[in-house]
Amino acid sequence: MVVPRAKALAGMAWRPVMARLRPRIEQIATDRLQPGIDRLNAEIAALRQDVERATQELDGHVKWLYDEQRRLAPHLAALEARVAAVERPGSAARPAERLEYSPDEADEVRAEHARIRARLAAISKYEERLARLEEDFSAKREVAG
After folding, report:
1. What count of Cα atoms within 13 Å lies in the side-chain half-sphere of residue 138?
2. How distant, in Å, are the alpha carbons of 52, 74, 86, 135 from that of 55?
C-alpha cells in the first residue's frame, strides 16, 4: 500500500519537470533526425521522377504495340483464311479465281502464318509484362503516396 502511494506522489512531482523537458527533448530529436529525413525525402523524389519517366516510356511502347497489333490484325485474318483454304481442299474459303495452290505457295503461306503468330505471341507477352509492371507501379505509388 505504501509503494503505490509513493509512486503516485513521485509521478505527481515528476509531471511538471517532464512538461518543461518534453519540448526540448522533442526539439533535440527533431534536429538530429531532420537531415536524415530530408535526405530520404530527396531520394524518394528522385525515385518518383525515375518511375514517372519509365512509365511515360512504357506508355509510348504500349501505344506503339497497340497500333502494330491493330495494323496486323486484318493481315492475320486474311492469312488465316488463306491457310484454312489450303489446309482443307474443297473448302468454300478458297478464292474463286484460283483452283489450286502450288505446294510452294502453301508452304510459303504456312511459314508466313507461323511468323505472324510468333510476332503476335511476342507482342502479347510484352503487353502482359507491361500490364504487370503498371500494376506493380500503381501498387507502389499507392503505398508511397
Report:
1. 6
2. 5, 30, 44, 11
Confidence (pLDDT) at 100? 62
DSSP one-letter string for 16-83: HHHHHHHHHHHHHHHHHHHHHHHHHHHHHHHHHHHHHHHHHHHHHHHHHHHHHHHHHHHHHHHHHHHH
**Average pLDDT over the chain, rounded to whole?**
82
Position 144, amino acid: A
At 102 the three-state DSSP class reads: coil
Angle between helices 2-87 and 103-144 (to 10 degrees): 160
Name the pLDDT band for 44 (thresholds 50, 70, 90).
Answer: very high
Report which residue type is found at 63.
Answer: K
pLDDT in the model for residue 145 = 60
